[in-house]
Hints:
Blueprint: H1 3-7, H2 14-31, H3 35-48, H4 53-65, H5 69-82, H6 87-99, H7 103-116, H8 121-133, H9 137-150, H10 155-167, H11 171-184, H12 189-201, H13 205-218, H14 223-235, H15 239-252
Helix pairs in contact: 2-3, 3-4, 4-5, 5-6, 6-7, 7-8, 8-9, 8-10, 9-10, 10-11, 11-12, 12-13, 13-14, 14-15
Amino acid sequence: xxxxxxxxxxxxxxxxxxxxxxxxxxxxxxxxxxxxxxxxxxxxxxxxxxxxxxxxxxxxxxxxxxxxxxxxxxxxxxxxxxxxxxxxxxxxxxxxxxxxxxxxxxxxxxxxxxxxxxxxxxxxxxxxxxxxxxxxxxxxxxxxxxxxxxxxxxxxxxxxxxxxxxxxxxxxxxxxxxxxxxxxxxxxxxxxxxxxxxxxxxxxxxxxxxxxxxxxxxxxxxxxxxxxxxxxxxxxxxxxxxxxxxxxxxxxxxx
Length: 255
């Protein structure tokens, strides 16, 4: 028997090679923001292979990006039928259903993500957001905590958790959560600002003043913070410091 014949490997179907090449081109166009070019290639692939999972999913993602949410849901659901074991597809579906206000279905989509990929912190975070919007605040808290077990330095999830605590009236827990963020990123000016407001609401004026000064270390042009400082310093009887804060605000914004 001819040994060369034994060594020959089956050649790839030329049509399959073309599809793979075209799909990579579509992905490249998508990654560089050339959505129309990516969309056209995916449509061409589907003319040949109507059940092509990646082409369907990518078309759905593009439809989501251009805010054609109804079309996006239809395309992504078609992709799910082709391969129901891809967590990325259910993740995209959850995003799109949320945009449509179909919160119950979006929740189910994220639960499906977590069945397939139990350590997906982003899915837990997004699920927590939707549970919060649905008024399921305690469930949202539990979900954010699961996300943080997986990714304990995720500032975004801590922020979301603090917002839910505030909705529950648990200001002490919300404040503790903001302090946790500042352990991770001491320069988060938005958190310093929010922390100052919550501390003021709780009557912890010294800590609130400290938080506001931290804001000004990062952004010395924040007129609102100078005004807030002026109010707190005045309440403490620190009139000179209060006047200085008000004057600084007027220097920045005389009107």
